[in-house]
Amino acid sequence: MEGVKDLDRLRGMLAGLVLGDALGVAEGDVPGTLRIGVAGQLACFTVDGLIRAHCREVDTGIDTHRPTLVWLSSRRWARLQGLPVADAENGVHSERQTDDWLAGVPAFVERRGSAPATAAAVASSRSAEDAVRRESHGAHGLVRGLPFAVAGVALRAVHWANQARDVARLTHSPVVGDLTLLATRWLACAWASGDPWRGAQLVMATGADAEHLVRDTALRAYGTSADADVLANLAPDRSARSALLGGVYAALSCGGRSSVEEALTNAAAVPKAGPGVAAVAGAALGAAYGVEALPSSLLGRLEVAREVDRLARDLAAAVDLGPHGRDLYGTYPTI
């Protein structure tokens, strides 16, 4: 959309993701304070890993395997939560990674629900390379990978979506990895086009089997207002598939910038699946329309609104969207 800058879309995507997650945790009811959920925490630590990857590349001059750095940030999240983490041996997998500013924000390190697949993975595997195949189909694997979409657009690098898939497969099933790749591609296309529907069209144009999921859901949403029964049928559980399909439907049935609050509230109210559905929908709407389109009445109640915006600005600096970030090299020590 004309007038919406890349930084605004980056801020919108991350804020929309975390806001949607928080609304879903509240089951669509808006209390005095909206508290970040575990999926939102994990997504923020993904951003932390992407920024650290940038800092490491600058310091060493060597291309960094981003899934490895995101894996380390997931381990950091678990350690700060007091969860068991497999001992690392040496080198890049050392655990000297608790001195960043995220560790000082209580909402990022307090227990905000369970993430059993992620917790089991970091407890049993020391590195991304020795992570064993997982069978979980949960939505956390997908939501955690969504920040890769923004970096992919910023760098015009398709392989970032593939890396999002690889990150999801470290803790969840291959199916979740494929759905995560699809979700990040859709978000990237929504951001690039400024329109969630146009983004879905671009994804559908490839004709691959997985894209049929988006096509069928998009056609049900086209030209309609969100229907609670349809949403409940598309998203009957806390799986990654439910999060993606419900999120696509909620975002595409949104009437535009003026209806974002209604779309997020409807998505968050889906029984069982609300956090994942609303996180995906919020990320897509924020990426397409920018942070200013997100309802200020809700963002003002999000307990980590400022911290999430700081993360977004730091990521903007890391993916070269201009000098919008903090002093990354003092805030994110080299790993």
Secondary structure elements and their pairing?
Elements: H1 6-25, H2 38-60, H3 66-80, H4 106-109, H5 116-124, H6 140-145, H7 148-155, H8 159-171, H9 174-193, H10 196-204, H11 211-221, H12 228-234, H13 240-252, H14 260-268, H15 274-289, H16 296-299, H17 305-318, H18 328-331
Helix pairs in contact: 1-2, 1-14, 1-15, 1-17, 2-3, 2-17, 3-8, 7-8, 7-9, 8-9, 9-10, 9-15, 10-11, 11-13, 13-14, 13-15, 14-15
Brief sketch in words of this structure:
The protein has 18 helices and no strands.
Structure description:
This is ADP-ribosylglycohydrolase. Pfam families: ADP_ribosyl_GH (PF03747). InterPro entries: Ribosyl_crysJ1, Ribosyl_crysJ1_sf. By secondary structure, the chain is an all-alpha fold. The protein has a domain at 6-194 and 289-331: Orthogonal Bundle (ADP-ribosylglycohydrolase fold), CATH 1.10.4080. The protein contains 18 helices and no strands. The radius of gyration is 18 Å and the shape is globular. The termini are far apart.
Separate helix tally: 18
Order of helices and strands: HHHHHHHHHHHHHHHHHH
Low-confidence stretches: 89-97
Structural class call reads mainly alpha
Number of strands: 0
Given this structure, which CATH class of the domain at 6-194 and 289-331 is correct? Answer: Mainly Alpha
Pfam families: ADP_ribosyl_GH
Organism: Pseudokineococcus basanitobsidens
InterPro entries: Ribosyl_crysJ1 (IPR005502), Ribosyl_crysJ1_sf (IPR036705)
Protein name: ADP-ribosylglycohydrolase
